[in-house]
Fold:
Amino acid sequence: MQPIYIVDVCFLNIGSELEMGLLDELLRFIGQGSIAGLHPIVVMAVPFILGLIVGFFIKKALKIAIIAGLIIVVVTYLGLFNLSLEGLKDIIAQYGPLAVHYAVILLGLLPLGLGFIVGLVIGFLLA
Structure:
């Protein structure tokens, strides 16, 4: 039976020239290229800025939703509002497909990418 030798590629620096060439090519594309007549930095900044704005609004909406939820809990506890599953099922049957439809449209419009996700997280944390 032949012995199996495991060689660490990073130790031998075999792939370092390929990695540096790829990085140089990518940086050259970002610095000198053009996407639909726009500089690539502009194309990358737009999803990031949209992510910042959406993250900011999501955090504000969550604050409002938490306050509304607390108000509903207090009003329900006092007996001024009745939570029944039949009414909730009717509301979901009536507005559920419409809400899903608009959510799909919104997700289709947003440029989902790494820049958008990073902007979304930063906008959420800084709001």
